[in-house]
Design goal:
The complex is a heterodimer of chains A (about 550) and B (about 110). With about 550 residues, chain A is an alpha+beta fold. Chain A contains 9 helices and 21 strands. In chain A, strand 20 and strand 21 form a beta hairpin. Chain A starts with a strand and ends with a helix. Chain B has one domain. The chains are: A alpha+beta (about 550), B mainly beta (about 110).
Chain lengths: ~550, ~110
Amino acid sequence: MLSKSRILPATALLVTTISHTWAQTSIDPALAGFRLNRVANPSFDVGSIADVLATPQAFIQYLRLQPAHADFTRNTAFKATFTTALKAVENGRVDEQAGGAATLGGAASAAEKAGLTGLVTAALESGAMTQTLDQNVLTLRGNAEGLLRFLTGQEVLPMCETPEATDCDASPLNNLELTSSFDFSKTSTTESVTGQVPATGAQITALLTSSKRQFASASARYAIINTRDLRSKKYRDAWVKWFEANKAGLGAAGNELLIAINDIKKAVENTQAKDAGGNPLTITVTLPNGSTAIMPVMIYDDWLKGTKAALAGATRSEAALGMILKQRLDILEADIRQLTPDLDARLEVAANAYVRYFNITRQGFALGNMPMLTANVTYSQPTLQPKQIEGRFAFAWSPKSQGPANPGTLTLNGGLSFYTKPQPKDAKGGTARFRTADFAFQFDRPMQSNGATALTLGGYVQYQSAPSLILIPGVTTAPGGVPLPGNPTQLLAPKGTIAVAHAALTLQIPNSGIRVPIGISWSNRTELLTGNEIRGHIGFNFNSNQTLLQK
Amino acid sequence: MACQLAPDSTGTVDFITSAGAQITVVIRSGSATAKITAVILNGTPMTLAGGRAVFTVVAGRNNLDLALAGSDPMEDFEIHEDGGGPTKLLRKGNFLNGPTLGFRIHAF
């Protein structure tokens, strides 16, 4: 029985790089609501951070964390709700499959998740779970409708004004995902295997060498039940039904929230600023008809202009922007406190109003945690094995959440695989197309302590009806460099059930669309070898949605 | 009736318009589930008409605030003025930034 432990050398380098990236993002925690990490996106408009009273939630959170507010009892429910809402986004969905199947030479998940990509996903993964030879596998996924819209210059996610509008309806192509995987290894790995030659029954040992840079598999996945897709009619219908039932409550809570916010900001929005000489500040404005008019400049107008200019002149880094924003926010806070002596009490009223509003809206978010069912057909060319066709169902279910954050997703897989042509199954001349039946489960949960991290636990079981078949090239040599005689031949590997246990941590670089799953798996054997295996897995996933679609 | 909000070229306020203009504001999103749930103008709640914020601006400063709701906390949305013909994009947003959105409008 073999027992091995391998950790891929690239893991240490990647972990070091990612840790460095995370370390650079340490800024004043009170600024967290401004999501300054968006600066990493080259297309992000830095000036959009400045208008803190247009979307005041982050500013109110900032004010409530300032020393001047320390004597007030902070409503912790507001912070919890707010933080949870942010985490929900930072976590993203944990039900979308990025990489390849567990049966590939490089895999980072035991089960294939049910969610489809919105446009394009790429994943580079190292470390095999069930295959004997480790490989680096590049998997590209594309949503059929998203790709069609993108390539024809249409909006990938068209905007609709009303639920009744049909121009944003998703077509059935939206439920279709096409996938292709390639072995991307620069170097080969080798394993010594012993098996039976079907034609003669002789036991021989061969040294197998993995191939490099070749096609691995192609698949088509169709979401049979896709209620998590916001563009699906079923989802929209459910949302509209919920909204109509809660419209009155939302309206009342919305009015209460807006009035509470207005009570904080109205003084600086409506009080005219003064210049250095104490004169009311005005500006000449050109009207649409070409004439000009004098417009008063309010305290907030003046502050906003100054803040936009300061941010525009700053180094484009999270730390630099955070420092300047804090300086500017402190000026605005002083202005508001001067005009609104009871600001602290108003902040608490606003915080309570936010909580009441979120308490209603989070019920709508729960609609996004419906079950999903996806069917998958894969054609694969495993290294040194006959070509195969696999059929698999993936089912995803999330437990009920107490907030908008995704509480986790349980994924179940069931699949069958067949050879494309009948293959030898024993040394008595018998052949079969049926190859394996497999079952997998996986639970992915965003970690509460860190919105950018998800924990994955999974398992995979594969039943083999017949020994795996190895295709040995003619150039294969036995250990010791002795060439094996004859042309390419076949070898029956020892038959047995494969069981895999897998755990992984997925790190997400915020707003980049990049996720890095790092995991470890234990298996009782692999496709071609008996004996325990402990292997390290690492992936590098890129999802185009965030970079192409998020504004 | 054409759209009546014009961007302020000085960048002092978000939009300028004529006093007495009646403005209709709507929300759009990819899922069409984004909704305006409440609207106030200068601190006074206004009535929503079919999910649209309809209001008449007064001379001087008009502070418009919208409360929003949507099914996806990370969805982008767009606020448009609907003047009867082609709508005009006023602002793009994302629910990540909170459930409210404010506009500063000055009417002459």
